[in-house]
Model the fold of this input.
Amino acid sequence: MLNREFLPDVRRRLAQQPALVLLGPRQVGKTTLAREVAAGVPDAVFLDLEREADRARLADPETFLARHRRQLVVLDEVQTMPNIFTALRPEIDADRHPGRFLLLGSASGRLLQQSAESLAGRVAYLELPPFLASEVAEGTANDPARVSSLWLRGGFPRSYLAADEAESLAWRGDFIQTFLARDLPQLGVTIPAETLRRFWRMCAHLQGQVFNASQLGAALGGVAHTTVVRYLDLLVDAMVLRRLEPYLANVGKRLVKSPKVYVRDSGLLHALLGIATLDDLAGHPVAGHSWEGFVIEQIIAALPPLASFGFYRTAAGAELDLVVEHAGRRIGYEIKLSSAPKPTRGFWNACEDLGVAQAYVVAPVSESYPLAGNVEVVSPLALPSIS
Done:
């Protein structure tokens, strides 16, 4: 198992707050990371709320939590027991010392809404993504083979660490089936699994394109656009799709105002499209947009908590795949699947429109090099951090 870069951050936030909510999709490694944290804390208590025996221990949550007041209590899949949030608030107020609770959840919107109602000001949040390129490269300056494997297989641990491509693809196929047929119904979703599978696959074919709910509804057999938006909300909430909103800068231009949609994990994207090998991927029309989504997830995962981000596109064709704003600075990213990337005029116009402090063209290159005074070509492993 690879070491996760997020482990120090989890420990730091637990040292500062009474409770930390660790979010991430199913099978992304939250439980493994939490057990590693708990192993370093004497007498930590670990409950999996999908196990009936562990749920029974919380039949009287006030008494149970009070009894373990001086211990770290880890609650896995906490979204399956929403009433626990009501019990956590008075217990935290009774003793606000740091590091009391580590809550693991697989449904971001629903879980955040529940916790916001009762734990405002008492809890920190951290999202655990699938493996990142910086984690699988094991500290090397550049490791194209590992990055290519991560791009193809995606970052779910059992997919990336599989013995071969066939085993990895089979795991992702099983994950998709289980996610749709079991995991979503457990969250209260009543939409037929096959309907959501068709919608998810359509989103995969439209990876990185502007979302058109009416067009997708027609392709689904005349489904209302409001229903299509509800499907999107469900899969965004489950953290398997990303809705990338436009960056609406006040630049006096006609801007595209609809979001783009990405399958967040590139391995799941490829499984949905039946892409089994790097050769298959290289010849597939989705390859460029797949690389774009892959890199965007790498960038977003490393952003500081208060950074805002979105894509920029004008009716005249000025475009940046990602714009990040933090501490009063704008940073632009253009993503190219080319070893010799050549930005279009739209990239330069967008940089001028926004007055970016720095811009990067992210491509599968072996070494970084400058294009202009504030524009640099870099690999995903060489992206400078934003602080």
Summary: The chain has two domains: 7-127, 133-382.
